[in-house]
Amino acid sequence: PSGYTSASTWKMDGTYAEDRQNMSGHILPALTVHFCNYCGQQGNFRCRRCKKTSYCSVVCQAEDWNAHRHVCKSVEVEPHGDAFGTQRIYFKDLHMAKVIQGTEIQATVLEFYSPSRFFILAQSSELLGALQNIITELQKIYSCPSTTAYVPCVDEVCAVQYSTDLKWYRGLVKTLTADQKMAKILYIDYGNEEDVPVERIRPLANTLKPFSPCAMECCIVGVVPAATTWSSECCIAIRQLLAGKMVTVIPVETVGNSHVHAVDILLSMGKNLSVFLLEHGYGAKETVNTTPTEQDISAMVCASLDNFKRLSDGKDDNTWAQTPESMTQAVGDSFSVVVTHFQSPDKFVVQKVENAGVIQELQLKLREHCSQFPVSSNFRPAPGTVCCAQFSEDKQWYRAKVLAYSSDKHVCVGYLDFGNCEEVDLSQLQPISPSLLALPIQAVTCSLAGVQHVGEGWSEDCLLTLQRRVSNRILRIKIQGAHEGKALVTMFDEASDPQANVAELLLSAGYAAPAPVNTSNDQQAEKTTPSSAQDTQALEPLKWSWAELPCEGQTVALLASVVLSPGKFYCHINNPTDCQQLMELRSELKLHCEAATTPFEAKVGEPCCATYHTGDGAWYRAMVKELYEDGVLVKFVDHGFSMKVAKNHLRSITAKLLTLPFQAIRCWLTGVEPLGSEWSSEALLWFQTQVNGKLYARVLSVTEKGYGLELESRGQNVAAALLSQQLAKIPGEITKDMQAAVGSVDILQKNTKENEHRQMENKAPRETATQSFPVDWKTMTLPINETFKPYIAAAVSPSLFYVLSPVQVDEKKLQEVMLEVAAYCKSSEPSLSSAAVVNKPVPGAACCAKFSGDNNWYRAVVLDVCENELKVIYADYGNSEKVSLSHILPIPTRLLQLPFQIIRCTLAGKEHFPSEWSEEAQQMFKSLLPNGVLATVQSFDGSDNVLSLSLPTENASGHVTAMILDKVQAQAKNSCPTPNLKADSTTAPTDTKAALDPPKSKLVPEDKTTSGCTKTTEPTPQSPEQLQVQNKNTCAQSVKEKMEDLSTLAL
């Protein structure tokens, strides 16, 4: 029994990691565990007739038949001659998407019935792309009329012809009239309903993938109608606030049958919709189901003894039946549980999932035992004894302890194996047998470690939110100790993605404050003095070291980990022993960080543990470099790259974890320097290709920049090869370009003075023309080993392409940046537009661009440079167009702080790539991208995310890298070797097939049709404010421009 849910309807959610799907906060459906409709225990069998109701055995099914036969309806498929096959598709067969709780989702409200029922459409490019594919396929499949009559079933998903436009959509059959001529249909991808004659209903083709409903059914969390139902005034007011608008939706929990999501909506006025409903009197707060508290029980104790003794003479007082022993747990034990009773973070009760079979067997024995004896008026168990009690919700028998007598005939009992209690009539108690007391108590009473309430007690919002978070889920707990008779535990929700620590969720939401982990009352006295080894160790300063290279002229084997330029890269010593120790260290880091619950205070210059993606659970050693309000900049010392991470992604580190020296060694290549002030894109690409593999190095110098190395790769000296390729010069050498530049010094000085004079004349303060077009902008780093379906925003070649970020954009921060961009460009346009004409940005450079659709300025990245115009991709929206040079402005560094929504990527296997891509290879690469490729993140090379792309099995089996290299090798056999790329080589841009645009808000730039590019519109549901043509242009880029796009990651 449970204090808040019936055992007969209880379900558990879980998720397999391999089933995750990156879709704007969506993941694939959770695992559902069914329970017996009669006894409430786990049921692995279903009724053969209706295929819906679960049972644990034939005995329970027979006992339940008298009640079940009234609702049991056959769902056997009737044979019919339709060409679509005989297999019906039911709503439960669809791959239901599960929303990640707490993640903000940008969505439009499709249909609003009331605050308790409305439908939204998440503005995800993948979701809308899937919706378009479904609609397109439906029109193709059902274009021909059917000659076979079809009668659908309730809960079946069919193809339905909508009455307004007579197009085919997926519809759920809600009800069917008695004469089977009309059906009430819910269009699951749009949320609207209508009555449809069966002549316009067809079985859903088996060739269609069972994609989840695109329209999410939602209700407002924590609010119920102020009256019995929502008033029409309320529904009209809310409909005006939401209809046809883009809103921010915050999922809180999944309720009911797991198809309805309890959410809150952030209104444009800055309030949540739940608060709006309460303030205007439309709704009332949802109350939490309560059970008798300890105070209630204590108050009844005094009176209960009198109530018990008053009529106990000559009765069976059951004094022999004492409480069974509890299960023994050890510190460090970790196991999966379900929460059977929740009171607060300080007290909740769980059962082990592994003991479900034992509990089921116990329930069967209890039912059999109690059915053999009639209710006896002579049975009056004394307080503190154990008996059988009939739970009021499901009328099943459970082991219970008599707590108190509230009256002569009413008893308060606590259910031993579930933790909840209730008041029952004396007639609902029966004696128990000794054999039923042999099993230890299956309920484990717990308290959440590392948190304490804020203020005098736990708030009502905290209790309500946490109860929803832990109810009906399989969770994992780890025992940290014992405190006041309860197991002190950390709790993890493994079904969520990323995996959630419940204590951290309470802390981040402000519902709780950090608290030290107290293991028992007996240990509190010992904590006053730091006598333990752990306390002594905590007082000692941490010590660490870095791996070193031999400086006596020996040659050592290295592996490059992060390559920025010949002047700065990081290597590992290629030593199997060190590699094995590093792998073992990662396992120790994971165990240490998962057990750590106390907050970590970061200090600059001190080591710690850090993770940059919680989904994979991997932790790494790091060094704190800088502190910010919204995060911490750390350097991952075993790899060499730096990254800004959230504060809750840091943990303290122990001296044991610092025993192995930091493995990333900073190096630079001796004997060369760049031709200009910086390394060219060609040199960077060539060098990154050469050092990707096993290297042999000899230390020639040690400076503050690290180890100066003489490198050998694939049998050739890397420095000598750079010089021979004319990509570097000998240190101190004056090149022809430098000599020619000396002659223009006077002109440069003259122009500088004129610019200074013009700037002095400007009355309004403006940013000067020293702003540049940076190519070293930082791109987002994708989580390593994560597999997802990418949305390719622009593809230049296998070495360079851009994907849209799968992470939902923070609309508030983006809006702030857009306002800054607009203000900057408005004040700078008169003075800087001419600078863009004189100093053209190179491909890959960041800039500000004026979108032709609304004449507003946006952040952009240059894709291609022509004589009088540029091809740009709008960095926060993914669409592209050609713009005039006068519509380009330099971008200041401050406007690059928020990462772009496009992510710079390169295809894995670049060590085998040619120095110059042929037009055929580029075309082949671009032609493979629309085929639904899957991407797996291999690494981050300091500049780009290295992705492995593979084709789905239904299209073609194989990896894109292998297919591209096969193409290159086939071309090499039929042609001469490709000459080395020179600085002045150019190729003509090549057109590609345009991809579908993601949905955009009102302020999002949209494409303008340009020559050489096709335009495709996407018929997605939109509000009147969003009825704009949406299209995307992607154009090819020359090899030289592609290489200039690659730049270093500033650490």
Automatic annotation (TrEMBL):
Subcellular location: Cytoplasm
Gene Ontology terms: biological process: cell differentiation; meiotic cell cycle; regulatory ncRNA-mediated gene silencing
Entry keyword ATP-binding: no
Listed Polar residues bias regions: 975-990, 1010-1034
PROSITE patterns associated with the record: TUDOR (PS50304), ZF_MYND_2 (PS50865)
Primary localization class, coarse: cytoplasm
InterPro entries: SNase_OB-fold_sf (IPR035437), Tudor (IPR002999), Tudor_domain_containing (IPR050621), Tudor_TDRD1_rpt2 (IPR047377), Znf_MYND (IPR002893)
Biased composition (Basic and acidic residues): 999-1009
GO CC, any one term: cytoplasm
Role summary: Plays a central role during spermatogenesis by participating in the repression transposable elements and preventing their mobilization, which is essential for the germline integrity. Acts via the piRNA metabolic process, which mediates the repression of transposable elements during meiosis by forming complexes composed of piRNAs and Piwi proteins and governs the methylation and subsequent repression of transposons. Required for the localization of Piwi proteins to the meiotic nuage.
Family: Belongs to the TDRD1 family.
Protein name from the UniProt record: Tudor domain-containing protein 1
Top-level taxonomy: Eukaryota, Metazoa, Chordata, Craniata, Vertebrata
